[in-house]
Amino acid sequence: MSEIREVVIIGSGPAGYTAALYTARAQLRPLLFGSSIFVGGSLTTTTEVENFPGFPEGVDGPVLMENMRAQAEKFGAEVIDDDIVSVDLTGDIKLLTDSVGTVHRAKTVIIATGSGYRKLGLPNEDELSGRGVSWCATCDGFFFRDRDIVVVGGGDTAMEEATFLTRFAKSVTVVHRRSTLRASKVMQDRAFADDKISFAFDSEIAEIKDTGGILGGVVLRDVFTGATRDLDVTGLFIAIGHDPRTELFTGQVELDGEGYIQVDSPPRAPTCPACSRPATSSTTPTAKPSPPSAPAPPRPWTPSATSPPAARHRPNRRPLPSLPEQHSQAGPTGTSGRPRRRSRTSRHR
Where is this chain compositionally biased, Low complexity type (predicted)? Predict the structure, then answer.
C-alpha cells in the first residue's frame, strides 16, 4: 500500500483541477487521478469556451484544461493519468485501487468524476459508433466533409455541435422532440442564422440503419402522430445530455434515482464521512451550472501560508468619517443625561 495522503481527487475536469489547485496551495499535497484515456474531461472535446471568466475572446477547451492542470501542478499537485477502478469509503482511511492494482490511501476523497454522454438506447447505436454515429463533433466532424448530417438534441451542446459541423458538412438537420429549443438565445440565433442548418421539431430518431457496417440513414418519427419518414444521412451526432459517472460509488455514497450523488446542503457534502463535496455535474442537478463550472474549495480547509489574515485584508484603510449627531428634543445629552455617542458605521466584516 502507498502512504496515507491528506487528499485524493478522482477526476480531471475543471472541478478536479480546481480542487487540486486549492488543496495544493493549502499545502495538502493532493494526488489527482485523471483517466487513462479521457484526460481533461468533457471540455477537451469542446471548441471555443465563451462563458469561462477571464477570457473575453473565448478559449479553446483543450487549452483551458492544459492551463488548469499546469497551474495545479505548479503548486505541488501530483497528477496521474490512470483510472481508479474500485473504492472503499467506509473507514476513516479511504482505499482506492487503480488499474494496475495499487491501493492508495487517503484521509479525504474529492469526487470529481463528472458525467458522460447520454445515449439514445437504440439498436445499432453502439455497433455503429465510429462508423457514422458519434457524440463529439470536434472529435469526428472532419471525417464528414460534404456529407448530410443529423444532430439530435435541443440544448446548447446540440446547437454548438450543429454550428461547428457546418464547417465540413453539406447540410445539418437538427432533430428535437419538442416544438421549441432549450438552448440559450445566443446559441439559437447562431443556428437559425446558418443556411446549412434545418430543423425537424416534434421528432425523434426511431431507427438507426446499418448498411454494410456503416450508418446508412435514420428513420424519424413524429412524437404526436407517430408518422415516420426516412432521412438519408451518413452522420449522426447525439447531443441529448449527460449521465453522471458515479457507478464507482454505488453502495459507498447515497445516489438518487438518476445516479447523482445526494448531498447535504449546507454544507454540500455527500453522505459519506470524510468525503469532500463532489463536483457539480456528479451531484443532484437542482440547478445545473454551465459545463466549465468549478467546485467550491473542499472542507476541512486550511488557509495558505501566504494568505493574509482576514482582519488584515485592507491594513491601510482610512478611518470612516463620523456621522452627524442626532439631537432630540431632550437635548444632545439624551434622556439619560450622558453625552450621546457619535454613531459610526463600519463596513468591515
Answer: 273-287
- Cβ atoms within 10 Å, residue 194: 15
DSSP letter for each residue of 61-127:
HHHHHHHHHHHHHHTT-EEE---EEEEE-SSSSEEEEETTS-EEEEEEEEE---EEEPP---TTTTT
- Measured over all CA atoms, what is the biggest interatomic distance in the chain, rounded to whole angstroms? 100
Read out DSSP for 290-345? -TT--PPPPSS----TTSPPGGGSSTTPPPPPPPPPPPBTTBTT-TTSSPPPPP--
Catalytic residues: 136, 139-140
The domain made up of 4-116+243-282 has a fold known as FAD/NAD(P)-binding domain (3.50.50)
Residue given cell 487517503 in the structure block: 106
Superfamily of domain 133-240: FAD/NAD(P)-binding domain (3.50.50.60)
For residue 304, give every residue at least 6 positions away whose Cβ sits within 8 Å of its Cβ, in sequence order, or none: 25, 26, 27
Helix (H, G, I), strand (E, B) or coil at 166: coil
Amino acid identity at 208: I
The string of pLDDT tens digits covering residues 295-337 is 454 444 444 443 444 433 444 444 445 555 544 444 444 444 4
The kind and range of the H/E element at 133 are: strand 133-134
CATH 3.50.50.60 residue window(s) in the chain:
4-116+243-282, 133-240
